[in-house]
Amino acid sequence: MEKRSLKAVLAKQEFFKGLSDLHLEILAGCAANTRFRASQYIFREGELAERFFLIRQGQVAVELPTAPRNVIVQSLGPDEVLGWSWLIPPYRWHLAARAVKTTLALSFDAKCIRAKFDRDPALGYEFHKRFSMITSRRLEETLLQLLAVCRQG
Known about the structure:
- The chain is of the alpha+beta class.
- The chain has a single domain (33-152), classed as Jelly Rolls.
- It is built from four helices and six strands, in the order H-H-E-E-E-E-E-E-H-H.
- The chain has helices at residues 3-12, 21-28, 110-119, 121-152; strands at 31-36, 41-43, 51-64, 71-76, 81-82, 96-109.
- Strands 1, 2, 3, 4, 5 and 6 form a six-stranded antiparallel β-sheet that branches.
- A hairpin with a 6-residue loop joins strand 3 (51-64) and strand 4.
C-alpha cells in the first residue's frame, strides 16, 4: 500500500483523528501493512520493542507469561492500538501479544517514529498524550479485573 493510501487509512482511525495532514503523512511514512496467523506471537516479553500496531482486522490477546500457562490480560480488536513499550526506554516488551485469529494490522517502526518526534516535538507531545490515555484506560481495566479475581478468592 502506498504512502498516500496509508495516510487515508490513518485519517479514518479514531486514534489518529485530529492530527494534521502533515503529521498523518509523517506517520504513514513509518507504517507498513502486517499480517499475523492465528496463534502467531506478535511479540514476547523481554524482546526489543521495535514497533507498535494498529489492529485493522482480527483479534489479539495480550498475555502475562506465567507458569504453567500465559494469562490473558486484555483482548484487543479492530481500531485498537497495541504496544507502548517502544515509547519507554529501555524499549523492551513487558508482556506478550499473540494473534487469536488471523489479524491484519498497520505496523509502525519505533525508531522511525521516535526520530520524527525529535524533529517535530509537537507530534511527539500529541502522541504521548494519546498513548497516555490508552495506558491509563487499560490500567484501570486491568485493576478492575484484578479486583474481580480477588473478590472470587
